[in-house]
Structure formats: C-alpha cells, structure tokens
Amino acid sequence: MSDKIELTAEPRTDLGKGASRRLRKAGLVPAIIYGGNTDPVSINLDHNDFLNQLDNETIYTQILSMKVGKSKKEEVILRDLQRHPYKQLIMHADFLRIDQKKVIHVTVPIHCLNEENCHGVKMEGGLLNHLQSEIEIMCLPKNLPEFLELDVENLNLGESLHLSDIKMPKGVEIVALTHGEDHDTGVAAVHKTREVADVDPEAPVAEEGDEEATEE
Fold first, then answer.
1. Diameter of the chain by CA atoms?
2. Residue 187 sits in which domain range?
3. Do 33 and 63 lie in a common domain?
4. Bridge-partner residues for 159, per DSSP?
5. Model's pTM, two decimal places?
6. Residue 189 in contact with residue 120, Cβ under 8 Å?
7. Domain edge (last residue) among 97, 114, 138
8. In this structure, how many other beta carbons lie within 10 angstroms of the beta carbon of residue 77?
C-alpha cells in the first residue's frame, strides 16, 4: 500500500465561469467536494502541486486526505477530472466524500505479472495483447485496492485470460461480473505475430545441400 496522499485546498465563494477563468489564470484549479451528509463545498487547489500529484497512478484509486482551509481533514476520492484538450492544464476536479460504511464504485488499473516469462511469448513467439487496462470494481472504502494483478506467465499462444481469472482481494467485486457470465470479457491474450502466422509448421524443411542437388 502506498503512502496516503494528502491534498491542501482553500474554500472559494466566487463561483461561475468567469471566476473559474480567473482562478486558472492565477495558477489555481477550481474544484468541488460533494457527497455524504454534508453540503457540497467549492474549493481551489494549487495547479502545479496538483498536477505533480496526478503523476502518481494511485491518486486515481486511493482514498485521499483533503484539508480545506482551517477545517479538519476529510477522506475523499477523485471522482472526475477535466483536462484542457491540448494544454497541460487541469480545468476542474470533483472529489467525493467517503462514508466508510457505504460501498463505492471505483475504476482501478490492471497490472500484468510475469510478462517477461509469458510462455506464449517467450517459448512460442507470440505477442501479448492487453485487452483491458482498467476495470470498475465495488467495495467498502477500507477494502479499496490501488490496482489488481493478473499473472500471465502460463498463458499460451492462442489463449486468453478473462475477468474471472483475476485474483480478487477480500471484499472486492468486479462490477461487470455481477451482471452474469456473459460479461466475463477478456483481459489479456497471446496472439500470433505476423512472422509466426506466415510460417506453416507442417511445411517440409529443406535439408542442407538440397539447393545444389536441384540445380544439378
């Protein structure tokens, strides 16, 4: 488990599109905290500090500690993030308050283990394809994993692994699988590369000297 990420923000009362533009020009990110039994709170964060924090993959799946002004810290998760279409600029962020007794839905990344030793790649010349890089899960906040792991070491050429093959932590469910077996989609597969596909395994192998014998 990674160290808990702490964010510091200031409350804001100047709302609207014009106010948000002024905040961005001042190097701040307009944001909101909502959920729970408390009214939503409009806040702003230092843009560069927040942008640096976003380089940490776990900020998207971890329960964060949010300090707003002089108020006590709150536990939140990053629910939504709006980025500028081409500039390295965060336009707005939404944070959801956490109730430790209520199930939350979060999208978490999938980490494939033993890719370098995958049998279908290492021994059969195939190519490992990542069919999904993240999935939606549901759990109580205390059980929230930062990521899920899938071991691909024994995956052979032409085979695939599905959502049901992911080893799940206690108290965590994959949302798709709660809808039935027909939602058990593929996560990783080993496919033939072009080189492997072009080779006929039943074609006779020319013996050394055959070319000379043919020319004679």
1. 94
2. 104-198
3. yes
4. none
5. 0.78
6. no
7. 97
8. 21
